[in-house]
């Protein structure tokens, strides 16, 4: 509750100085001090008393504008409630909805109050109409004692030409059919004051759905841009004093800008569903929608303008926004006019840049030479008609989008026909929704990302066609995940998180070819997903949080796009029934198919007691097993082991038990030979062929355990570093991983066999920048095989 000084707390000198500025102050003081028994006059006296407190605080300058507006809003709401009760409306099946600055508790000193009445459609009241008219009259009638509030009820369905009191059904039906962008903005600050609780909750839920759609919808920008232009032309004639509300970059511009961002992002970022402009700006910054410098600027400048607005309205309690020279003299600290105009210009620049809905595409991009099939696809996209009331706008957005997409294909130069075919299927799948056209036109980096993916991977193109909502998550940079969610909702959210992670990581990988960063990103995604599942099932079953011991590529943060998760469960003590339930549900969650596919294939064959099923091992038991019973291949496997919970490496604590001796090497060499697959002139195996990924990893792991040279981490590069082997070994290995992952992305499968005439080799040649990728792969495999033999690691 905000408080301001009482009138008698100001000195006589201060009061006299205020009254010299405007006759309204002494006029209101006389009204306050005049005895009356009339209820409407008492309401005015109370209103004028609160208004004077707010006005004096404004002029003295000790209180910020936000505090003054909050105080004035609180006082006004209390006064309106007294009138509501006096008229008997508290006994009626009627809601009073506050909009605008009354709804957000940010009333300026001479603001209208925007309200809408809504009655319960299931109940009738014969006296309701009379009570409402009395209510409005008491508040707004101009008397010798003045008025209390100007009442604006034009936000009701249909405006001032419609019935004064709609019922709840007609309210919802009207805005469902006729709701426009400015309605969506107005609903942001809707706040039920009084009325039936369930009806109020229902109205708020409906309005939130209207204001904060689940899908990002940038089409609102064009509509608000048009509204902004109309307001500017109406209120800015170029003559007279500065209008701080409607001048470019002024109060209305800032509110339109902030509320538009709330509409666009609020469906995904619930913190943005705020009626307060201050809280909205703060959360837009926290959610990385507003840059820090813009956040700091708007927090300061908006409330500076609101302070000027209050000063203007102190002058005669008029609904005015004109900053005259005379009013400029009322400030405790003189206004810096030059700085003020510079701030208006900066605000206008930021807001105007936002309302530019699309960057300009290169002219004639879609007129360039394409193959016959490519040109046919372009024509099909051009001729596809969208479903919208504003077809001309949608067609322009689609044409601009096509122009830009084609320009990216020219720069990427991998497979334009494949990209265009995937893009057409994507456009068809979204049924030419204008919101997605606006989204892609506004985010060039996203469109370029899609162009890369569609140029290389039909698999990713199909995923996007089935799940276009992933584009929203890409722009926002996150999927809303809460481990306390319903299990089904959580699993779908995690599946979306994985797809989003792949979508982002693959796009970057295609551009930068950084295999280590790519695998690390995929591993981070797997870690996050599994931790969320563990948190969820531990709470669900009141179980001890599971400890997952990551093995293989998962432990080394080297997961590929189709990698399994190798792991075992660990427990600090003997597990109970709830712990085992949580473990089983964890496995089911990872492997049960959903509309996005399964989360991960898993491999638990390294569990020492595999035949017993999803057993939670006591850590002491595992250590004892590795010390006394483990076969050489099991020791090799546990060299790469990492705890999921904190990322710490497990292998250092058991490294001495994992050492291999001459008697162990024969069996491992035999296993290694069985894993190898012979190559031929027209077919190579990236993973299992001589010199391939498996033999490279096998060789390094065996040599580390044979020599006892401790690596710092589980990563292959760390093993290589510990051994001090030639750099070429690691370079070859990373090339093979890079080739493998590009091949998998290209095919959408985990195949490791590459035929000399494979259809994907053309795309791989451009991605790898190798004119003969098959020949180069053969050369690398041969070189790696010879290097490993010379190091005598597996022979």
Describe this structure as you would to a colleague.
By secondary structure, the protein is α/β, with parallel strands linked by helices. It folds into five domains: 7-210, Beta Polymerase, domain 2 (2-Layer Sandwich); 219-346, Nucleotidyltransferases  domain 2 (Four Helix Bundle (Hemerythrin (Met), subunit A), Up-down Bundle), CATH 1.20.120.330; 365-477, no CATH class; 518-658, Beta Polymerase, domain 2; 659-795, Up-down Bundle (Four Helix Bundle (Hemerythrin (Met), subunit A)). Helix content is 59%, strand content 6%. It is built from 35 helices and 13 strands. The strands form four sheets. Strands 7, 8, 9, 10 and 11 form a five-stranded mixed β-sheet that branches. A four-stranded mixed β-sheet has the order 3-2-1-4. The radius of gyration is 35 Å and the shape is elongated. 42% of the residues are buried. The model has no long low-confidence stretch (mean pLDDT 88).
Mind sketching the topology for me?
Elements: H1 12-21, H2 23-33, H3 39-60, H4 65-86, E1 94-99, H5 100-103, E2 113-119, H6 128-140, E3 151-152, H7 168-178, H8 181-188, E4 191-194, H9 197-211, H10 219-235, E5 242-243, H11 251-265, H12 277-286, H13 292-316, E6 322-323, H14 325-328, H15 337-354, H16 372-383, H17 391-412, H18 416-429, H19 434-442, H20 444-456, H21 458-466, H22 470-476, H23 487-512, H24 515-540, E7 547-551, H25 552-555, E8 565-571, H26 577-591, E9 602-603, E10 616-618, H27 619-628, H28 632-638, E11 641-643, H29 651-658, H30 662-675, E12 683-685, H31 693-707, H32 716-723, H33 727-747, E13 753-755, H34 761-768, H35 773-790
Parallel strand pairs: 2-3, 8-9, 8-10
Antiparallel strand pairs: 1-2, 1-4, 5-6, 7-8, 7-11, 12-13
């Amino acid at each position: 509750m905000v408080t301001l000084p009482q009138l008698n707390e100001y000195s006589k000198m201060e009061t006299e100085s205020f009254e010299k500025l405007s006759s309204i102050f002494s006029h209101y003081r006389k009204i306050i001090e005049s005895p009356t028994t009339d209820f409407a006059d008492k309401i005015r006296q109370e209103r004028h008393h609160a208004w004077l407190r707010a006005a004096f605080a404004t002029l003295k300058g000790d209180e910020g504008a936000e505090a003054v507006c909050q105080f004035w809003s609180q006082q006004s709401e209390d006064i309106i409630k007294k009138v509501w009760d006096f008229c008997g409306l508290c006994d009626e099946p009627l809601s009073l909805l506050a909009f605008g600055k009354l709804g957000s508790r940010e009333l300026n000193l001479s603001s209208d109050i925007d309200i809408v009445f809504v009655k319960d459609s299931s109940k009738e009241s014969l006296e309701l109409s009379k009570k409402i008219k009395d209510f409005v009259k008491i508040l707004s009638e101009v008397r010798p004692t003045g008025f209390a509030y100007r009442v604006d009820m034009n936000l009701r369905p249909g405006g001032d030409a419609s019935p004064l009191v709609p019922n709840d059904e007609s309210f919802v039906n009207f805005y469902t059919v006729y709701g426009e962008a400015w309605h969506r903005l107005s609903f942001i600050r809707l706040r039920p004051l009084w009325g039936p609780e369930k009806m109020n909750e229902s109205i708020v839920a409906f309005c939130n759905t209207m204001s904060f759609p689940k899908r990002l919808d940038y089409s609102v920008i064009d509509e608000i841009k048009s509204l902004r232009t109309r307001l500017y032309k109406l209120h800015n004639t170029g003559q007279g004093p500065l209008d701080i509300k409607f001048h470019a970059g002024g109060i209305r511009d800032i509110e339109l800008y902030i509320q538009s961002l709330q509409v666009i992002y609020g469906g995904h970022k619930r913190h943005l569903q705020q009626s307060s402009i201050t809280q909205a700006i703060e959360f837009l910054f926290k959610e990385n929608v507003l840059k820090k410098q813009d956040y700091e600027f708007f927090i300061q400048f908006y409330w500076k303008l609101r302070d000027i607005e209050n000063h203007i309205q102190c002058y005669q309690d008029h609904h005015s926004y004109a900053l005259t020279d005379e009013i400029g003299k009322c400030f405790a600290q003189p206004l810096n006019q030059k700085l003020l105009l510079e701030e208006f210009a900066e605000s206008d620049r930021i807001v105007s840049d936002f309302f530019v809905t699309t960057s300009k595409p290169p002219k004639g991009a879609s007129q360039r030479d394409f193959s016959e099939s490519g040109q046919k696809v372009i024509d099909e996209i051009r001729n596809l008609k969208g479903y919208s009331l504003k077809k001309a706008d949608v067609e322009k957005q689609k044409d601009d989008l096509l122009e830009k997409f084609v320009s990216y294909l020219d720069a990427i130069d991998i497979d334009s026909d494949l990209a265009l075919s995937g893009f057409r299927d994507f456009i068809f799948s979204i049924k030419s929704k204008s919101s997605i056209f606006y989204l892609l036109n506004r985010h060039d980096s996203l469109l370029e990302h899609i162009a890369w993916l569609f140029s290389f991977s039909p698999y990713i193109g199909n995923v996007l066609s089935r799940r276009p909502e992933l584009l929203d998550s890409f722009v926002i940079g996150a999927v809303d995940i809460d481990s306390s969610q319903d299990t089904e909702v959580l699993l779908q959210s995690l599946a979306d998180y994985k797809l989003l992670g792949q979508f982002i990581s693959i796009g970057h990988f295609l551009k930068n070819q950084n295999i280590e960063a790519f695998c690390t990103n995929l591993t981070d995604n797997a870690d996050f997903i599994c931790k969320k599942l563990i948190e969820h099932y531990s709470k669900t079953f009141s179980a001890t949080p599971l400890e997952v011991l990551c093995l293989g590529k998962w432990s080394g943060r080297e997961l590929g796009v189709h990698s399994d998760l190798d792991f075992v469960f660990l427990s600090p003590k003997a597990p109970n029934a709830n712990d085992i339930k949580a473990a089983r549900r964890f496995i089911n969650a990872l492997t049960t198919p959903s509309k996005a596919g399964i989360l991960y294939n898993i491999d638990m064959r390294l569990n020492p007691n595999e035949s017993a099923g999803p057993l939670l091992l006591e850590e002491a038991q595992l250590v004892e097993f590795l010390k006394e019973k483990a076969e050489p291949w099991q020791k090799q496997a546990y060299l790469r082991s990492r705890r999921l919970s904190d990322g710490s490496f497990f292998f250092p604590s058991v490294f001495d038990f994992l050492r291999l001796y001459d008697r162990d090497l024969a069996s491992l060499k035999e296993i290694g030979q069985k894993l190898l697959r012979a190559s031929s002139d027209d077919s190579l195996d990236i993973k299992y062929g001589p010199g391939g990924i498996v033999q490279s990893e096998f060789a390094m792991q065996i040599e580390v355990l044979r020599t006892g040279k401790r690596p710092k981490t589980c990563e292959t590069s760390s093993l290589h570093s510990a051994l001090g082997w030639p750099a070429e070994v690691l370079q070859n290995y990373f090339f093979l991983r890079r080739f493998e992952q590009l091949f998998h992305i290209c095919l959408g499968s985990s195949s490791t066999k590459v035929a000399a005439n494979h259809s994907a080799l053309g795309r791989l040649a451009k991605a790898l920048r190798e004119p003969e990728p098959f020949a180069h792969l053969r050369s690398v495999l041969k070189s790696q095989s010879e290097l490993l033999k010379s190091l005598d690691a597996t022979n």
